[in-house]
Design goal:
About 85% of the residues lie in helices and about 0% in strands. It is an all-alpha fold and about 350 residues long. The two termini are about 40 Å apart.
Length: about 350
């Protein structure tokens, strides 16, 4: 009888897990902002408790948090404006040089598409004016507009959920107590540990991404690579995608440097510098600062990146590691799943 009961539970688990993942995918417009809000709220939880200990009204604490969020959005918009202005103000010589080298690079693409430039027209101009490219461009513009609209709606929902979480209207500790732990002490203890680990992850990840972005920007500036501010911002943002982001930032910047840098020595030195920056902050300092409390092995990271990237796309890649840490911390609290949590934390 007991064996049959265990088999039924395993069968239900096999059925429920894919259904939950499907539900998360279908209702991504709700769950993505909710998870972002949960991790954002964890940043301000210590501040809110500090207000409570000093009998400061909760409303005042919410106002302070809104001011912080508004300030962060303002700073972010100014950084994007500076980056855009840097590209727009680039001198004409750069574009002529870039155009010449790009024409050579896209020569095989011209042969493949069957597009041929007329007299006085560059390969790039011919490709941009071709019917096939125009159709793809307009389709991409439509996709970009849809992405922008979706991003703005998710951002507003994230801010809304964050305020609800901080105000206590959505009490995640209570939700964990009712649905998972069934005991108040266990839920409080686990939630505080999760809060501590996630907060540590966010702070360390932000700091390492910031230093990486600054390092990339300075490397571009000293080696004469155009748009150092833009590349620093690019490296900072994409570094939030665990493991994959650091590889992408190095490859994309290297491809750009190949077009712009003429001297082999300068190019080699530039490659060594940006690779060294990425190794220093991503492979050495970040694991040391994270410590054992957030230990997740490489195989688990790659699997979770693939899973959440498939379900939620780019937001899934950003949220994959915090969600994995949340799941791992919950699994550690139960004897039946603790062994799987240990496997997730052990390197082969």
């Amino acid at each position: 009888m007991e064996k049959n009961l265990r088999d039924i539970k395993k069968l239900l688990l096999i059925i429920i897990v894919p259904f939950v993942l499907y539900l998360l995918s279908v209702l991504s417009i709700i769950f993505i902002p909710l998870f972002f809000a949960l991790f954002a709220a964890l940043l301000f939880m210590p501040l809110m408790r500090w207000f409570q200990r000093r009998s400061i009204p909760n409303v005042l604490g919410i106002v302070v948090v809104i001011i912080f969020i508004a300030g962060g959005l303002k700073i972010g918009s100014e950084v994007v404006k500076l980056s855009s202005r840097e590209i727009a103000n680039s001198n004409k010589d750069f574009y002529e040089k870039f155009d010449r080298k790009l024409n050579d690079v896209i020569e095989p693409l011209m042969d493949w598409t069957g597009v041929h430039p007329v007299e006085g027209q560059s390969n790039l101009e011919a490709l941009l004016n071709s019917e096939r490219f125009s159709e793809g461009l307009f389709g991409n513009v439509s996709n970009t507009l849809n992405f922008t609209r979706k991003f703005i709606s998710m951002l507003l929902m994230t801010i809304f959920f964050t305020i609800l979480l901080l105000a206590g209207s959505l009490n995640m500790q209570k939700v964990m107590e009712l649905l998972i732990f069934k005991q108040r002490y266990s839920s409080i203890k686990t939630f505080r540990q999760i809060e501590k680990d996630i907060l540590k992850f966010i702070i360390v990840k932000f700091a390492m991404s910031l230093f990486t972005g600054v390092g990339f920007g300075l490397a571009c500036y000293f080696f004469g690579v155009s748009f150092p501010f833009f590349w620093g911002l690019f490296a900072f943002l994409i570094n939030f995608v665990q493991m994959v982001g650091s590889i992408i930032s190095v490859i994309v910047l290297l491809a750009f440097a190949l077009v712009e840098l003429d001297q082999t020595g300068s190019l080699l030195g530039f490659v060594l510098v940006i690779a060294g920056i990425q190794v220093l902050f991503g492979a050495i300092l970040e694991p040391i600062l994270m410590g054992k409390s957030f230990a997740i092995n490489t195989v688990t990271v790659l699997i979770m990146l693939a899973l959440w990237g498939f379900i939620w796309g780019i937001p899934g890649l950003v949220l994959a590691i915090p969600i994995t840490a949340l799941i791992k911390k919950i699994m550690e609290q139960f004897p039946q799943t603790a062994v799987y949590a240990r496997i997730m934390g052990q390197e082969a």
